[in-house]
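Per reviewer request, we include the raw input and output of the structure prediction for the construct analysed in the revised manuscript.
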Amino acid sequence: MTAPNIRLPAEWEPQDAIQLTWPHSDTDWQPLLPEVIPIYERLVQLLTA
C-alpha cells in the first residue's frame, strides 16, 4: 500500500478558497463570543472585499 500524495501549501501561496469555522455557543468559544463574533465578521468583510 502506498501513502496518498498530500501537499499542504504554505500560507503565502496563492489560494482558491479559505475555510473558516464560525465560533458558536456549543464550543469553548462560548464565553468569548461577544468579543469574537465582531472580529470574525470583520475578517469575512476583508476576505470578500
